[in-house]
Every structure is written in structure tokens, then in C-alpha cells.
Amino acid sequence: MEAQSLLSVFCSNSVIPSIQNPKEPLPLTLPYFSSSLCVQSLKWASIKTHHCHAHQHLTSQIVRFKKKLHCTSSVEKVDGITSDREDLKNGFRRKNLAVFVSGGGSNFRSIHQATLGGSVHGDIVALVTNKHGCGGAEYARDNGIPVILFPKTKDEHEGLSSNDLVTALRRYNVDFILLAGYLKLIPIELVRAYPRSILNIHPSLLPAFGGKGYYGMKVHKAVIASGARYSGPTIHFVDEQYDTGRILAQRVVPVLANDTAEELAARVLCEEHRLYVEVAVALCEGRIIWREDGVPLIQSKENPNEFS
């Protein structure tokens, strides 16, 4: 069994190509990396050569690969900090992303453009929305990205239940979920199915001006009314409440003396677009790490000993 498992890992990295951007939901039983298929392929190659040296060469490759796996842990520790990073020397598998929106989806669009441009090493494979006709959903359809309705309501009869949503996202092999202006509370089933894998962006410097009822222009009006001199976007991991998950990244913008809510919102939104792309880049490169006290940090690409 150990040999067969090792052969399966070896094949999944060197024989069978990955599947990107399915246009239709894929069957749950689809064998993306079938161990039996890999083993049969290797056996066929061995039989065709009719030469024992070919088999010995393959065996030596597997032994070397096993040693490499043993030496290159998927969890890295740097000065008391653990990371879910893959080996930089061998590159990274492109990550599958699902984005959740309720409106125009400007952050969704900026991330999508970054995936197309190559700066984000991932692909948006599904768009989840609670509003079938919102701008973000229209953009997704125009770009061949499958749209999933959630939750099911009297206005959206085709919406999915929480469990069906988890099933649908797994069908697309989603690695990470990015909330970009999604106004519904994320169900506990999804939070538990994707631990430390769901991010949200909020238009204030959390924990200030966050929680239920604080969204959109309401946030910016509250910031101005409070007399705060600074605001800006926050990206945080999602838990079972509104805006209470661990903070990952923030960007500060000034609140000017004569600002309107609309002017402040535009200033914050510009930084949202930049910050969310930067975080998506780090996420897909495995540079989100967790301090021992549970605080997430972003590891510098240029200097692995620096964090932000």
C-alpha cells in the first residue's frame, strides 16, 4: 500500500495534467489524480520495455522522490512560526479560487485580471452570489466563470443550501474562498469545511466600524461622524461572526477634514483593489503563515525572514 501511495503521488506530479477552469460542474467522482491509472501507466511502461534496468531506474527515482518528500515538509517553521508553504524550488500548483460577491464586484474584477495577467498564481473557478443579476455575476458569465447562487430564498429559488454549496465548491476543487462585497453571513458548514481558507475584505480598519450592519457607505459615514483621522481596508480570515476573524492585512488612508462619505469610499476602494491582489498573490504562493499565538502574517517574497 505504501508503494502504491508513493506511485500515486509521483504520477500526480509528473504524468497527469491538472484540470483548470471547468465550464460546467464536474462530477464528484471524477478521478483527477487516479492512483490506479498511474500505477497501470507505469506497469505498462515497464512491460513494454522488457528490460529490468528500466524498472530499476524507476525504483531509484521513486526512492529519491520519497527522500525528497521526507526532507521537504508541507509545514515549515521559522522562528516559532508555522507555514503551509510548498517548496519554492519546485514552484507551486496553481490554486483554485472561489469569489463571493453581492454587487458590482470591483475587487473580484481586479483579482480576476491579476490571475489573467499572471501575478496571481491561481484561477477563479467559481463566482458565488446571492443576487443573480448583480454586476459581479454578469462579469463572471461574460468571462466564462460558473455562477453559483447562494443562499436559496424566495427571490432566488435556484439558490443552494449550505451543504450543497460545500459540495459544489469541492466539485470545483476550490482551495481558497475570497469574499469581495458579499453581504450574507457565511454559514458554519462552509467555515468548518474551509478552515483558515476564507478571507474577507472590509472597508474600515477593524476592529473599528465592523460587525453586523456595518457595510458599504454606512461604514464611511460612521467613520467621518466619529472624527477618526484615518481609515482604510482590512483583510481578515472569516469565522462564524461578522468581521471578527483574525486580521491579515490593512492599508491606511487619511480621512480629510471636508471628506464626504463618497470621497472617502473612493479613496479606500483604490487601496482595496491593491491590497486584495497583494494578499491573493501571497495566498497562492503559500506565504500566509501563522504565528504561535494564532496571528496570521504575510511572509516577504524577497526576504523570507521578514513578515507583515
Task: Please explain how this structure is put together.
By secondary structure, the chain is an alpha/beta fold. It has 3 domains: 1-14 and 35-71; 76-92 and 286-308, no CATH class; 93-284, Rossmann fold. 38% of the residues lie in helices and 17% in strands. The chain has 9 helices and 13 strands. The protein has a 7-stranded mixed β-sheet, sandwiched between helices. The chain has a 4-stranded antiparallel β-sheet with strand order 1-2-12-13. Strands 8-11 form a two-stranded antiparallel sheet. α4 (106-117) runs parallel beside α9. Mean pLDDT is 79; it is low at 1-90.
Q: What's the gist of this structure?
A:
This protein has 9 helices and 13 strands. The chain is of the alpha/beta class.
Largest sheet, spatial ordering of strands: 5-4-3-6-7-9-10
Report how far the terminal alpha carbons are from each other: 43 Å
Poorly predicted sequence stretches spanning 5 or more consecutive residues: 1-90
Report the order of strands and helices.
HHHEEEHEHEHEHEHEEEEHEE
Radius of gyration: 22 Å
Number of strands: 13
Gross geometry = globular
CATH homology superfamily of the largest domain: Formyl transferase, N-terminal domain
Helix count, DSSP H or I runs of 4 or more residues: 9
| Number of domain modules | 3
CATH topology of the largest domain: Rossmann fold
Major sheet, described briefly?
7 strands, mixed
Annotated CATH architecture of the largest domain: 3-Layer(aba) Sandwich
What attributes characterize this protein structure?
four-stranded antiparallel beta sheet; 13 strands; alpha/beta; Rossmann fold; 308 residues; seven-stranded mixed beta sheet; globular; 3 domains; 9 helices; GART_AS; purine biosynthesis; 17% strand
